[in-house]
Design brief:
The protein is of the alpha/beta class. Helices cover about 45% and strands about 25% of the residues. The two termini are about 35 Å apart.
Length: about 270
């Protein structure tokens, strides 16, 4: 039971459906949900219109004023299938189209290009970069990445690109989980509402467990409705590729990501 009314930001992509589906069914009294894209939610946190919820790891590290809810994240320990870079020609100075709404994925791409390939790229943002972008490659993430990957494979266009799964590339280099998103609360809000913080932490951890267990059929049904991907592909995505835990290894991976962002000149605290 929460003591005060509060609003929780929740990313409205299918990667969050195991949590979102359960929260919508069993929403605690006094808790409202605000569903939106990662970029839109980050803006609400930045302007003080939201104090808690899901956010990109890059924003969490960039802001420095939030406290993590324990035991939950959006991560991967290998291929994830929803953060993909398609390159026509890997070369230094290459021109890359990236989505305007994903700071974490863009910064990760820049890090991996530099660390693994010795490449510095010219980056420009589009709402939905794809095969038609006037570029040497394009980055796609979230639901769009899953759909783009499927369409390229179905059409045979995939052969024109080098397909790089950024989570797989990260894990091969560093043998640590790549944490793409976290749930966190503004530190000042937590200090004023310690009991609500603890209660919401429990709700989130419980929702993830139910969404991947008891309520998994409903999660699959909604994900299929949104994407038209097969049940088999979506089951692999949720149960074999995505990782919703947050352990000491995840904390180490997040700290490494922070240090690499700093190394490559990104604005991280």
């Amino acid at each position: 039971m929460l003591r005060d009314d509060c609003s929780l930001g929740q990313i409205d992509f299918i990667n969050c459906l195991p949590i979102t589906t359960v929260l919508l069914r069993e929403k605690p009294d006094r808790l409202s949900l605000q569903l939106d894209t990662p970029g839109a939610l980050n803006s609400l946190y930045r302007t003080g219109h939201l104090d808690l919820g899901a956010m990109s790891s890059h924003f969490y590290l960039e802001d420095g004023g939030f406290e993590l809810f324990p035991s939950i994240s959006i991560a991967a320990r290998g291929p994830v299938g929803s953060v993909l870079f398609f390159a026509r020609n890997l070369k230094d100075g290459m021109k890359i189209a990236v989505p305007s709404a994903s700071a974490s994925s863009v910064s990760l791409l820049q890090i991996l290009l530099a660390e693994k390939y010795g490449i510095t790229a010219r980056i420009f943002a589009l709402d939905q970069p794809g095969v038609d972008a006037d570029a040497d490659g394009f980055l796609t993430f979230g639901d769009s990445a899953l759909l783009t990957d499927h369409k390229l494979k179905q059409s045979g266009q995939i052969s024109a690109f080098e397909r790089i799964d950024l989570a797989q590339c990260w894990f091969e280099l560093y043998k640590l989980p790549m944490v793409f998103g976290v749930w966190a609360a503004r530190r000042s809000w937590k200090e004023k509402h310690p009991q609500d913080f603890a209660a919401i932490a429990g709700y989130l951890a419980g929702a993830a467990a139910k969404g991947l267990g008891r309520d998994f059929p409903a999660v699959l049904q909604e994900a299929a409705r949104r994407t038209a991907l097969s049940s088999e592909r979506l089951t692999d995505y949720y149960l074999k590729e995505l990782d919703y835990s947050f352990t000491a290894e995840h904390a180490e991976g997040l700290e490494l990501y922070r240090n690499l962002c700093k190394k490559h000149g990104q604005h991280i605290k």
